Amino acid sequence: MANKKDYYEILGVSRNASEAELKAAYRKLAIACHPDKNPGNKEAEERFKEAAEAYEVLRDPQKRQIYDQFGHQGLEGAGFSGFRGFEDIFSSFGGIFEDLFGFGGSGRNRSRSQRGSDLRYDLKLSFLQAAFGTETEIDVEKTAICPTCEGSGCKPGTYPDTCRQCQGTGQVTRSQGFFTVRTPCPVCRGTGQVISSPCPECHANGRVVIRKKVSVKIPAGVDSGSRLRLNGEGEPGTHNGPPGDLYIFISVEPHELFERNNTDILYRAKISFVQAALGEEIIVPTLNGERSIQITRGAQPGEYVRIQGEGIPSLRNGKRGDLIVQFDIRTPTNLSKKQEELLKEFKKLESGKLTTKLKNILKKNTSSTHA
């Protein structure tokens, strides 16, 4: 996706364009470049595809946020790879072309073919799986074309009959005063056909419920709320329409040691006040093993050490964030008799220093007053 044009430039809008401005800009481009108005014009076809992809991303708040922050690579990491062709564009937008232009998206769209529904799958990942990426296999429950009747809904060897109620038109007409009203036929439900001998497996539905194993490649750096799109893994379309897509929504389990902040991770290292006062080299965990770091003498609560490149990979460019080791200085509670004696001695020394310091301050203030 590195060579793709900027979506805002394609539509000719500013980066803070409103939904209405995006829609108006897309309408103008799509009318000018629509394939039905430019037969055989490859340049117009390409511009039509670019405009559709740009509008698809920018009209979706989540996709737009990913694009604004990470660009085309971020969308690719989130599972969006654009449209596969005109059928995908027309079916994805549904009736938007009639809403925008007052005419259908294409002659193909005026047929009975319809895109299949999209499916959703919620996938839970461990902290490390999300950090490094993984490949997993999921079980998706969906419908499929019935293998017995091949989608016709009829018992093998039989065929649907023409509906006698509507004579195969799929509509019935009734008069209301001076007006004539057409409604879908209640017998055939608008199909114009009636199945007298239904398929024993799908019971005239033409579809059966199956469980399908789908391989999913999770890019490194995903987080809770990330969404992946698998083209064509949704419900099958009707009357040779394209299938829908499968959207995988990611949720990441918390880690017992690390907290995540974008591409940085935080580890709170518990150290004693003696280690903080004297300084010491300690071992801390990272995503790739253990590392040694140095506690500086006199370390204070909340101070931290930053280890570069030990964080989470960016979805945009793959560059890893940092590991931040924050010092959590603990006060001892169960002291031995010897430890208590040493601390009392330390307290006396500290009190002596404080008394001397106060005397010096008072002496200095007294001298200044008499002068």
Structure description:
The protein has three domains: 1-110, Helix Hairpins (Orthogonal Bundle); 118-160 and 195-254, HSP40/DNAj peptide-binding domain (Sandwich), CATH 2.60.260.20; 258-330, Sandwich (HSP40/DNAj peptide-binding domain). It is built from nine helices and 15 strands. It has helices at 7-11, 19-33, 42-58, 61-77, 86-93, 96-101, 127-132, 273-278, 337-370, and strands spanning 119-125, 134-145, 161-162, 171-176, 179-184, 193-194, 207-218, 227-230, 246-252, 258-261, 264-272, 280-286, 289-295, 304-307, 323-330.
Précis, in short:
The protein is built from nine helices and 15 strands. It has helices at 7-11, 19-33, 42-58, 61-77, 86-93, 96-101, 127-132, 273-278, 337-370; strands at residues 119-125, 134-145, 161-162, 171-176, 179-184, 193-194, 207-218, 227-230, 246-252, 258-261, 264-272, 280-286, 289-295, 304-307, 323-330.
Major sheet details: 4 strands, mixed
Secondary-structure-derived class: alpha+beta
Q: Supply the CATH class of the largest domain.
A: Mainly Alpha
**Total discrete domains:** 3
Low-pLDDT segments, ≥5 res: 98-111
CATH topology of the largest domain: Helix Hairpins
CATH architecture of the largest domain: Orthogonal Bundle
Tell me the name of the CATH homologous superfamily of the largest domain: DnaJ domain
* Tally of helical segments: 9
Distance between the termini: 79 Å
Share in β-strands: 25-35%
Mean pLDDT: 82
Helix share bin = 25-40%
Q: Using the CA coordinates, give the radius of gyration.
A: 34 Å
Order of helices and strands: HHHHHHEHEEEEEEEEEEHEEEEH
According to DSSP, the number of beta strands is 15
Give the strand line-up of the largest sheet. Answer: 10-11-15-14
Morphology call: elongated
